[in-house]
Each structure stands twice: as structure tokens, then as C-alpha cells.
Amino acid sequence: MQDVVKRVLGVLYVITLFLSATLGFMFMQAPFIPLLYFAPVLYKDITNFMISTWLLLPPALNKVLFNTRVRMFGTALPTSGWNLIVMNHRTRLDWFYLWMTFLVAEGNPLSVTRAFKIVLKASLRHLPGFGWAMQASRFLFLDRNWERDQEHLTDSLDNIAFKSQPHSILIFPEGTDYEPKSLASSHSFAKKNNLPQYQHVLHPRVTGTVHTINTLVHAKSLERIVNITVFYPDFIPANEFSLLQGRAPGEIWYFIDLIPLDRVPGALLDSPPSPTGDNNNSNPDQLIAAFLKEIWARKEAMLDVLISEKSTSDPATDNWPEIKLCANHGILEKFILGYWACFILGILYLICTSTIIMSYCFAVTIMVIFISVRFGGLDKLEVKLFKERNCKNV
What we know:
Low-confidence stretches: 270-281
Strand order of the largest sheet: 1-7-6-2-5-3-4
Helix content: 40-55%
Distance between the termini: 66 Å
Number of strands: 7
């Protein structure tokens, strides 16, 4: 009986997220797409605000339906400034569950989510509903082919930084999530490059992350690196089917280390020595790469201890004190749940009773398909227009 209830909750959860993402895009973001041509900065502000309300829905549902609890250790997450978040990629849903921290961190959750972006694989761009909303919100999609990705990543970051409030950008330097095939690939990479074989993380492929750091520094849009190590002590949600089955972690632990930019070797002209103490024959990119690899070595050591001792010790230590969670967002959480419930039911009613609204939804779908075929996606169209305006202003 308990399994049946979980599955029912899982189906309800996924349907709610799909409908909210799809209808939210169609009625809260799509009407403003013409602003891309006439008022692009206003378009960014509006679409950022619209997505901010949706990003708080999954964590609120996780808490209400599955009683998932977040614990954070180390330093409190920053709620302002330009931040690049680097995190180990344990499952396909790491980025999804990280949103739960928004409802327990200090500060205004809507302000944080309004300025939050993720670097994701390109296949997610075209997911109906979810992918459309992420395109309109300037999430960064990569093909995992550096020749194709480099220019798009640079232009997308420049567009995000242009006349914008400070953002937090999440990137996974490992490039893919941890699973048997990717672990075998990591072991092969380690053997080929005479590196230790990791068991709990993948060796980071740092080219994209180094480029992201350099691009943001050049745009004067990076203040710190936020190093997060995620650990699932009771259940690891491997993929989206876990959501559909109503299987969710009971707890998620986040270990957070804030690294000011002046402590990142190679990021600034007066950067400190590399972690190996050898700056000879090292260019800035090599220094940043070595710094990121050292971070991953520490993640591997930390996770090795956590996995071996998770049933016998508390994760809070002098080096990783537990962060007191903010309990002041209960009213906002209830508002988010109520707002989206009313929004979904109201729009569905209009679609079922109004030919005009149904025709509008059909027209938006055709428009998105056309933009995807013609330009590669809304995000690519926005970047294309951004580059054209910059060329005219040069």
C-alpha cells in the first residue's frame, strides 16, 4: 500500500511540474518574446522574474510530498554577488535538488532564483515545457563538443552579464553524472594520464569550467567560486524515473566552501601560487585547471570518509560546522504552492472552454518549433540578436 501511495504521489509530482513548466512558459514567458527585438534587457528582467517563481515549486513539493530534508555544512550559500558554483555530479537530478537550498537559505529566495543559471547538456533544451522555459531563461546548453560549444558559451555568458543583476551560475566540471559507464571512462582517463582512480567522483574535464571562469572575469562578473560537495546518505535518485516512482531522498547533505576570486590561481594577475607550489612554465589556464583538480581530489577524500562512516558519525565537524537553516520562508512556500495550483487549474479550464486560448497554445507551440528549427532554440536566437547589436555598437 505504501508503494502505491508513493507512485501516486510521484505521478502527481511529475504531472504538476510538467504542467506548471509548460503552461508557465506559454502564459508567463512566451508573450514577452517580441521584446527580444525591441527591449532585450527588459525581456531578460521579465523572464528571469517569471522563472524565479517556478524554481521554488519543486523544492516546495519535495518538502510537502516526500518530506525531503536538506542539511548544509561549512559556509552559508551566498545570496548576492557574482558566483560560479562547481559541484560533483552524483546523479542526473543534482541540479534539480540543489534548488531545495533556496527555501532554507538566508535572504529572499525569489531574488536568488531570479539570478540563477545552470550549464546543462544540449539535449535538455528541447524537452517540451521544461526545456522551453529554460531556453527563455538563458540556461546554458552545451553539446559536449568544444569546437561547437566554445563560442556559444562565451556569447551566452556575455549576454547574461550584460546590464544584469549579479548571477549565480552552476556548472558540473565532470561533464556528466556519476554512473557505471562514466566511472569506467573516468578510470580510463586516469590511467591514460597517470592519475589516481577515483571511486566517488569523476575526474573533472576542466576546459569548459576554466573558460567560464576566464569569460566571467573578463566581463567583471565573477566574485567567488562556490565549491559544493553533495552527498545522499540514504537514497540516491539516479534519474527522472525516481521522481515518477515517488522515490526521493530522505536527506541531502551539502558541504559548501566559498573561495574568493583572489584565492583562485591564475584568475587574477596577482593570483596566489598553484596548489602544487610550482608556477614555472604554467599559464593562467593551467593554474586554474590544477586548482579545480585539487578541489576534486579533496571531494574524493571527503566522500570516502562520509560513505565509510555515514552510519556511525555526524557529518558536522569543526571544519564543516552545520549551517542553521532559515525557517522564515513558510509563508512564501505556501504562496508558491497555492499560486501554481490556482494557475494550473485556471489555465486548464480556459484551454478546455476557450477556442481562443487553445489556439494560442497551438500557436506558441508552432512558434517554439520554428525557432528551434531555424535558430536552434530561443537561447540561441537571443544570443544571435545580442551579438548583432554589439557589432552595430562597435
